[in-house]
Amino acid sequence: MCAPVVVVGAADVTVVDPLPLPMLAPLGELLATELCRRHERRGVRFALGRHVTGFAGRDRVTGVRLDDGGTLAADVVVESAGSIANTAWLAGNGLDLTDGVLTDTHLRVGGRPDVVAVGDIARFPGLRYDGVPRRVEHWSILTDTARHAARVLATHLAEAESGARAGSDTGVNTGAGTGPATGVDGDLAPFAPLPTFWSDQHDFRLQSFGAPALGTADARVLYGEPSWDVVVGYHQGGQLVGVVALGGQAAVAAAARHRATLLQQSPTT
Amino acid sequence: MKVVVDMNTCQDHGQCVFAAPEVFRFDDTGRLTHLPNPDDALSDAVEEAADVCPLQAIRSER
After folding, report:
1. Are β-strands A101-102 and A122-125 bridged in parallel, bridged antiparallel, or unpaired?
2. Which of A215, A226, B2, B50 could form a disulfide with A241 if both were Cys (CB 3.0 to 4.6 A apart)?
3. Is A187 inside a domain boundary?
4. Looking at chain A, which residue has its C-alpha nearest residue B54?
5. What pLDDT does residue A194 have?
6. Cβ pair A143:B52 closer than 8 A
7. Strand, coil or helix: A100
8. What is the rounded average pLDDT of the residues A37-52?
9. CA separation for the pair A96, A107 (Å, rounded)
10. Contact across the interface for A256 and B17, Cβ inside 8 Å
């Protein structure tokens, strides 16, 4: 991700990004170039393919030193270095904590039926695409994981309860109970949310559905044109895997029209 | 049931539209519009819409 642009009455903003274009991985070259252009038209400068090697100044920052030997003067520096999951407190429980907490396809951890991980520390298999477990740091993952995890726990508890009731019967089983126990794995579809993220920048919005990063090699303009309102579709093996809108409400609405297609991709269970 | 959206807070993200398209939709100008008194049968969908709103701009009551 590119470093964020801070517009709080700042007279002069420069974004330093080690990538050749901001947000190149999720957007691909076409949209990343257009995004960069829109910021530049609004007076933002970019130092691309560069990274910060140190800070200048004594009592307060006066600038940042770059890897090409140059220095950018600065009164305020905003550092956006990404994040790592806070899971150290879970050590010693036999969980996979290599990056967040590894879960199964129902957000359960450590092979337990009664413990789930939610939010952006949950590293769950990406069933909709390649099955590889990943953490997702976008806003919607909170409600998406919480909703599924609650169902998992409720289903498990109901099953455990009916199992306990059946087990406590003495003598003949009258068959008046709830029938054969149906568990999480039998009853619930595995967790396969449609990824989405958005970003409001200046007076335009960036809105994504699906996994555009998987289809940047085959990116096509589906609506509008890059310099105004545009929707780009990303394809993998000829199939649409993600859409990104850049612009105003018309672009966002156009992207949303592809959501149904993206949802139809059946999870690789 | 009654649905109220704080239109000063709403930023037309449309997550509510995805969650409860029978109740929420975008008008011709791209602004959110909704049924003020949807059927109680839609309460689950409305509750989900309220949960997924990034601005938490939706309130509902029976």
Report:
1. parallel
2. A215
3. no
4. A139
5. 93
6. yes
7. coil
8. 94
9. 13
10. yes
